[in-house]
Structure formats: C-alpha cells, structure tokens
C-alpha cells in the first residue's frame, strides 16, 4: 500500500486538540489541495473561510451545537458552496444567473465542496494534523452567514476543525464492502449485511464506552432521520437566493 | 512537499485512455479509500456501482452526453447518494424515514458523495491511473437508474471514469487564492480577481488550442448557468422519493 492510500485508510475524526497552532505553510498546503480538486464545469464553487479569532471561534462552537473542539482547536475552516463568483461572471457577460433556481446548484455546490473538503482532510492528515468535519454548520446557518458576512448565492455546507491531535481516536468500522459496492447493477439484498454491521457497531460502541453504550448503526441513523434535524437550512437557502425547484 | 500533497496538486482530468484494464486490486484500493472517508452522522450515504460491461458502458457514454472516454476507458464508477440503506435501518427500528422530505438529504447526500469520490480520485491517481469525473450522470438520470436498477431513495450524483492515461493533459490554472480563501470573514471584492483569472484562462485556452479558442472563465460559467442545463434531475428526484422542500 502506498503512502497516499495509507493516509486515507487511516482517517479518523479527532475531537481533542493541543493548543499548538497550525501554521500558514500548513494552511497553504491545505488550500493548494483544495484548489487542485476537480470541479463541475471548472466552476470552482468552493469558498473557504478561515477562522482563528478566539472570540469568533467560540461563537461558532456554540452555533454548530456546542461542539467544544471547535473552540479548542486553533483553526476552523468553513466550507461554502459559492455561486457569488458565478453571479459576477454573469454580470461581466451581461447574462442572467439562472442555475440557482434549480436543485442542480445545490447538488453541484454540495458535491464540489465535498470533493474539495476531502482533499483538505487528506492534506491535513498527511502532515500529521487532525481534523473533524462539522455538519453542524447547517444548524444555525443564518447566524453563521451574518457572523462571517457571507453574501447571497453562497451557503455553508460544512466546517472543518484543524489542529494537532491530543488523543488518537479509534478507527470506526464501516458497512461491509458488498453493501456499498455493486457490480453492473444495484443489488437490493442488503438487510442481512446491515444487520451484520449493526452487531459489529454495537460491539464497537460497547468496547469504546466500557459497556455504557451499545447503539448500533441502524438505531443511530433511524433516530436522526425520523425528523428534519437542521430545519433552518431551507429558509437560509431562500434568503441566500436559492429558489430551488 | 510530501507524496500525498504531490498527488493531489498534480491532478488533471484524463480524456484519453489505453485499453489496459484496471485490476481488482486497484479497484479494491479505490473502494478502501472511498469507505474510509468521513460521512455525516456516520450515515455512509455513498454507493458505487462499477460498470465494466462494454455494452452497458457504451450506453452510459451516450446517456451522459456522448462522452467517448466513458466508452473507451475500462471502468465507469457511478457514485450515488444513498438513503435506501437508511430506509432499511428505519424499518428495522419501526421508524419513519423523514429526512428525504428535506433538502438536507440532497446536501448531505451530495457532499458525502463528493468527499468519497475525492478519495477515489486521489487513490486512483496515487496508483498511476487517470480519471475524469462525469457530471453528465445527471443529464439523463432516469435512464441511468433503469439501466442499473437503482432503487428509490438513491440518486446518481456523478460518474468517475478510471483507466490508464493514453495522453497526459495540462494542469488547468485556478482562480487566484484570494478569490476563494478568506480570513475571518468573506471578502466581496472579487471582480478584479475574476477579470485577472479570465485573462489567464483565455491565454491558456489559446495556447492549448493553437489559437482556435479563447473562451475565458466567466464566459464559460455564465453560458452554462444562464439555463438549467440538467432539467431532468428534478423529476428524477421526485420519482426516487425525494420530496425535498
């Protein structure tokens, strides 16, 4: 296995950081990887806002759902899907920006952010840094937009905490390969594989929590997804100019 | 610069392939990287369908907008956002799957696919393979769904062509760093940076096409985005059970 594969397969989320700063050389290497990532139609729909200011970072830690590691780590990178530059491009050419009236802008924006953020993660981890992605950036998105002065046609997709790991964390088991990788057509025969994984995850949780917790995968997922857990995303998208249909 | 950063910053899309196959060891290494990627709430919303069958691949090449490299390269990986497993998880726990009634499922699905696909790209390139992402998977999504027997609560986000490069391609210049990377708040003063990049891209296009083509970035972007260029995504999402609001 080459070094690149080793870094990626060794990924784990870090929720405890030392106070050692992340330097500009490291942040620039992360941004080189972010910008090198492919983007749909070369649209380059990704914007990264780097927050180091302790007061702002503390506020963000609250907004994303009281996640202490956002406050503790030296750097918070907010990854946004960005059509504000596309709006400027349209203006420069006397055209209208219509794509933000379609769910296509949400899909392209979110998937391009994912591609870029993944490069940021791999870049950070290749330099010995730790990270944790923060989907909670969608918990109070309007407040985040105001705090960071984010313009129309831009929306926060996820945050990324970057710092020096204080504690290593365990590698979480994944769904069996056959449940996510299909050949020539989708194989719907998945229930048995999910039940097998549920057992494995319950064992993993029990081991990690000294027997306190034994929630399995399908319990976790179904408990999140029986509701719309970030209901403020829709009004935020409306306000930012995404009239998606 | 370490080897991991080198692979990512050297990324380019390959549109010409030899007929050498991609072997199972390589595909498994790609899938190891895909599955190691972080996912929102550990939901593991990503499904990869691997197509090697020449008849199916030829059909896909047409459906995504007559992209010859899909037919030419040995492997096409379709990356889907998948809530079908979440539906099974809900059933196993007597819960309802409600998240697919929200745009949250589109954002989470698309960004998780992006994160995973980026790992697939980096894994492939680290082994000397070439790739090109295929957003055209959203051009005729319903036909693709039928061809690959994709169930409800799953939608195609993008394809990935994988093979051995026949021709190296050039590194495409990117927007200036200051246009995508902001400190402590969004900086809206972007027009000058975009104009500077437009000039650079026009020069790059002229050089690559022997003077035949000089389209700049804002011309390309505004010409794509003055319309909804994949209008079949919305009815496909409805049909797949995404009643997003």
TrEMBL record, chains A, B:
Domain Nitroreductase as annotated: residue spans: 10-164
Keywords, alphabetical: Flavoprotein, FMN, NADP, Oxidoreductase
Gene3D superfamilies per record: NADH Oxidase
Transmembrane segments: none
GO molecular function, one term: oxidoreductase activity
PANTHER family: OXYGEN-INSENSITIVE NADPH NITROREDUCTASE (PTHR43425:SF2)
Family: Belongs to the flavin oxidoreductase frp family.
Protein name: FMN reductase [NAD(P)H]
Species name: Aneurinibacillus danicus
UniProt lineage: Bacteria, Bacillati, Bacillota, Bacilli, Bacillales
